[in-house]
Inverse folding.
């Protein structure tokens, strides 16, 4: 619940500030708010040993994006939360990797195809990570070793590409591919997501 | 954006939030512990380190647990492991070799291994033995050949189990040296125990082959197990072929000097299992027969484990006797007369009885070996034995049992007993200690039989019999002259001559013979003396004697012829033997060719004197007839009287008495008268009249007839004989009573035998011999002077061994004669 409140607070603050900016400087509707769902290939760099990469669903990602002064640039911000469960083996440390944070990237629109709007961006990812139930198991799934939980903040660089398609009325749908590169190596994430955006 | 749109957006977020992953991972349970228990057995291995390793991928992996074996070789290890093949290693500790009782400590690098499939959380029982060591070696080989470890372990386990017909990994072998094992039912555990003990026995044999001073020090079961493992690991076959130390090439393997091959292994497991079962080390109630099927099964194995195509010959051959002839000792064979002929003993000695002297029927302190038995003249049967186990391997002599039984006349006197080899051969001296204490109490017709049964460890038997009969002779008894004494002298010396008739017809002990029975056995004696003792009776006799002799004289006669020719008497010269006068000369002249020599008539000769029982001489014999005196020579005189011109007379002559011009002669020849005027010649035949004859006359010898007093020995005095004997036991002071003439002589006793004789009835003489000058009678008067009774010291003693009173007539007899010369008992006037 604490985490939920924190995320909700971050989300409201981002959306509120963007809305406020658009209202005074951009009569055009360039701000979009959306919800994204995706899957990420998560790799955890565990100091106790190797881990198994795992695909995990990223069910809750709130997106806010807005143009930067009518340019072909915009920023793309996300508040996200997910929890990845890494399988354990005798050599790989299984664990629950819980992560929430905010990504902010600056994107530039490049139009390679007339009907397709594609944004390429780069930015940073600031997150809070928590690794629990760290353990190894034998081939039969019996616990071999259990490791203490660990947690900490993570700063990573991200690059992404987003393609958008307009939907009727103010809705848009976007597909995003993103790669995060952590600075401390805790979690490396390759993500694909679909985002439903509402332009307002 | 309107407010409801915010609201709608937030509602959506809330809904999606509910879909967010909220479950947390629960930590899995830890793997449950399993237990691996078992026993380390090569003999019970105590104080050994038992380590259990993971055997994933066929290589020794993580150590899963460890323990130390207790006094019963048992171990128990709790491990926490997934299902996987495991390797159990036993190292260190010590065990006791079943075959020798030798404690053996496992050296560094010596291990026993076992493999098995571990099931997580379960309890397992894994034996670790030399046979599981085999399983491990084979499994590792199969793994190295690319087989999965699980399959390799399973196939190795099945192969080895089939080879030994038991589950080597699960069965706990019994300790066959433990008399308190309490196992009474034959099962895999018993068989397993005997297999392992058989290895100990085989390594004992191999240790001896390697001339190891302390058996099982180097060449022991654990060392052999290492070779098993290496052999299998090298090529997957228990065939004695394995990698060299550099692991570069295969080469023959050996156990010291003992080369290894598949047959050796099979024999090691089979025959020596039987051997140990047949030994004193086997404290169980199970015997060789219980194991024969298993032994045969092993020997017949042609499985992949040994790579052999032919079953090994498991010693279905009986042991053999070596040197079947010529090894027995020399023995004395009786000639039946107390003498013997020396020859070698045969198995069957039915041509002659053995000659055995009763002071040599026991060994006493004689050491049983050829040299001492030979030097003590104790005969013995000797033989060696050998046995082929099969596969070119000889049975250890220690594993060959030789048993012997002695019987006489089909009656067992000494039942079956084991015989111990001496210098590699078996000797059976013919003595009380080895046959029977009363073996010598036998009669010659008794049949002595020594049965020998040789049994190998499989139970194959060979029987050999030795038979003989025996003449038991009392050794030659010697009684020298110092132990022979004459006893009767006092009788004669104390009898007055005038009482000499008291010495007629008396019995007295004449001679004593003393000896001691040192033969060590009692015996019987029988005494005899067939000697004719003699008497000598010397007398003085007075008798008139007349000695005369016949005198033989030669007498010549000569008929002399005169030639005397006249003109008117021209008759031939002649002599008329009827009317002529014979001359009886004692000398005749004989012409020798040169001169006349006088020839004398031969002198008289005398015959032996004769005793004439009268003073008158007997008549002389009649003279013999006349016959010619032989010519003395062939020379004769020839003379011619020439009275020409009237006549001429020529003639020859010899044997004249006097020399004249024309002497008369006894011999004339070639007489011829030539009448010149008439011209005629008259010749005459030769004439010879020279004869001789012998004339006899009795003449008394000088001094005869006259009385003569002389000493004479009477002829034909009677002989006398030994009539009885007395046998005295000097130790008891008692006389020994004979039984049917036989006296029993106790062992060690001093014995004196006496010979008794009976004097004859002599004719005694007491005539008067005092008239020496005028005794007129030619019938003598006789007066005893000396009487001598001469008793020979001969004593014939027959000795027979005491084989029972009833057997005396059946026993061989030694006849001995004692005594020399004779004892003269005399009485004299």
């Amino acid at each position: 619940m604490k985490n939920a409140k924190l995320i909700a607070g971050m989300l409201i603050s981002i959306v509120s500030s963007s809305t406020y900016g658009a209202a005074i400087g951009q009569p055009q509707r360039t701000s979009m708010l959306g919800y994204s769902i995706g899957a990420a290939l998560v790799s955890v760099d565990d100091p106790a040993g190797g881990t198994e990469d795992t695909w995990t669903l990223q069910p809750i990602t709130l997106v806010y994006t807005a143009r930067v002064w009518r340019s072909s640039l915009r920023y793309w911000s996300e508040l996200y939360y997910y929890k990845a469960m890494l399988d354990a083996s005798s050599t790989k440390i299984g664990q629950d990797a819980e992560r929430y944070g905010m990504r902010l990237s600056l994107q530039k629109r490049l139009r390679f195809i007339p009907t397709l709007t594609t944004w390429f961006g780069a930015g940073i990812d600031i997150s809070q990570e928590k690794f629990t139930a760290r353990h190894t198991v034998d081939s039969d799934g019996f616990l071999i070793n259990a490791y203490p939980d660990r947690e900490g903040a993570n700063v990573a660089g991200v690059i992404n590409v987003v393609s958008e398609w307009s939907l009727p009325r103010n809705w848009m749908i976007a597909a995003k591919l993103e790669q995060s590169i952590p600075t401390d190596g805790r979690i490396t994430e390759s993500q694909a997501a679909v985002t439903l955006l509402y332009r307002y | 954006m309107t407010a409801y749109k915010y609201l709608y957006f937030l509602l959506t977020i809330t809904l999606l939030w509910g879909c967010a992953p909220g479950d947390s991972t629960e930590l899995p349970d830890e793997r449950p512990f399993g237990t691996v228990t078992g026993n380390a057995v090569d003999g019970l291995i105590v104080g050994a380190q038992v380590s259990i390793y993971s055997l994933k991928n066929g290589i020794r992996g993580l150590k899963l647990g460890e323990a130390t074996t207790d006094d019963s070789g048992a171990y128990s290890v709790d491990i926490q492991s997934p299902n996987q093949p495991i390797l159990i290693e036993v190292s260190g500790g010590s065990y006791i070799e079943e075959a020798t009782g030798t404690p053996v400590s496992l050296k560094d690098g010596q291990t026993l291994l076992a493999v098995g499939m571990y099931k997580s959380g379960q309890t397992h029982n894994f034996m670790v033995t030399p046979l599981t060591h085999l399983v491990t070696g084979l499994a590792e080989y199969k793994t190295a050949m690319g087989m999965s470890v699980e399959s390799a372990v399973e196939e190795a386990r099945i192969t080895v189990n089939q080879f030994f017909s038991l589950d080597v990994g699960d069965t706990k072998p019994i300790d066959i040296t433990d008399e308190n094992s309490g196992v009474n039912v034959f099962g895999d555990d018993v068989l397993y125990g005997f297999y392992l003990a058989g290895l100990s026995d085989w390594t004992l044999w191999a240790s001896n082959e390697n001339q190891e001073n302390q058996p099982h020090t180097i060449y022991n079961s654990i060392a052999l197990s290492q070779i098993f493992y290496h052999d299998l690991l090298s090529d997957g076959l228990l065939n004695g072929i394995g990698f060299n130390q550099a692991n570069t090439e295969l080469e023959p393997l050996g156990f010291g000097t003992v080369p290894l091959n598949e047959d050796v292994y099979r024999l090691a497991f089979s025959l020596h299992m039987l051997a140990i079962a047949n030994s004193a080390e086997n404290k169980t109630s199970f015997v060789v027969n219980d194991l024969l099927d298993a032994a045969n099964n092993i020997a017949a194995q042609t499985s992949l484990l040994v790579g052999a195509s032919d079953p090994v010959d498991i010693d279905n051959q009986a042991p053999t006797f070596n040197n079947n002839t010529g090894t027995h000792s020399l023995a004395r064979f009786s000639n039946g007369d107390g003498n013997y002929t020396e020859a070698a003993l045969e198995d069957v000695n039915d041509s002659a009885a053995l000659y055995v002297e009763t002071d040599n029927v026991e060994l006493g302190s004689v050491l049983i070996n050829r040299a001492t038995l030979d030097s003590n003249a104790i005969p013995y049967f000797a033989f060696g034995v050998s046995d082929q186990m099969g596969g070119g391997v000889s049975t250890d002599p220690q594993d060959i049992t030789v048993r012997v039984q002695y019987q006489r006349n089909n009656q067992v006197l000494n039942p079956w007993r084991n015989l111990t080899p001496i210098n590699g051969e078996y000797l059976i001296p013919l003595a009380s200690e080895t046959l029977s204490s009363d073996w010598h109490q036998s009669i010659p017709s008794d049949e002595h039989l020594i049965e020998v049964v040789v049994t190998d460890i499989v139970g194959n038997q060979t029987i050999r019999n030795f038979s003989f009969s025996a003449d038991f002779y009392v050794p030659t008894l010697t009684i020298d002259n110092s132990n022979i004494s004459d006893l009767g002298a006092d009788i004669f010396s104390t009898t007055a001559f005038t009482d000499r008739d008291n010495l007629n017809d008396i019995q007295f002990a004449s001679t004593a013979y003393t000896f001691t029975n040192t033969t060590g056995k009692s015996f019987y004696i029988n005494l005899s003396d067939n000697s004719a003792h003699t008497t000598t009776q010397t007398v003085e006799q007075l008798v008139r004697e007349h000695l005369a002799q016949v005198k033989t004289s030669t007498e010549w006669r000569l008929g002399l012829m005169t030639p005397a020719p006249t003109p008117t008497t021209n008759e031939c010269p002649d002599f008329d033997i009827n009317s002529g006068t014979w001359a009886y000369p004692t000398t005749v002249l004989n012409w020798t060719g040169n001169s006349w020599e006088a020839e004398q008539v031969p002198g008289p000769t005398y015959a032996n004197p004769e005793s004439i029982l009268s003073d008158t001489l007997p008549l002389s014999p009649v003279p013999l007839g006349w016959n010619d005196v032989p010519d003395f020579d062939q020379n004769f005189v020839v003379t011619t009287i020439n009275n020409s011109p009237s006549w001429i007379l020529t003639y020859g002559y010899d044997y004249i008495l006097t020399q004249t011009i024309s002497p008369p002669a006894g011999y004339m020849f070639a007489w011829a008268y030539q009448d010149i005027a008439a011209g005629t010649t008259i010749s005459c035949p030769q004439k010879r009249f020279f004869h001789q004859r012998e004339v006899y006359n009795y003449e008394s010898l000088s001094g005869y007839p006259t009385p003569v007093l002389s000493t004479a020995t009477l002829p034909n005095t009677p002989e006398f004989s030994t009539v009885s004997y007395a046998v005295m036991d000097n130790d008891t002071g008692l006389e020994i009573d004979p039984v049917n003439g036989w006296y029993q002589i106790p062992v060690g006793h001093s014995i004196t035998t006496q010979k008794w004789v009976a004097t004859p009835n002599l004719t005694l003489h007491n005539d008067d011999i005092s008239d020496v000058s005028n005794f007129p009678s030619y019938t003598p008067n006789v007066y005893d002077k000396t009487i001598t009774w001469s008793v020979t010291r001969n004593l014939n003693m027959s000795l027979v061994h005491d084989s029972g009173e009833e057997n005396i007539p059946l026993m061989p007899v030694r006849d001995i004669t004692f005594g020399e010369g004779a004892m003269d008992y005399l009485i004299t006037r």
User: Anything to note?
Assistant: Chain A is about 10% helix and 65% strand. The longest helix of chain A spans residues 2-25. The longest strand of chain A covers residues 116-137. Chain A touches chain B through 33 residues (CB under 8 Å).
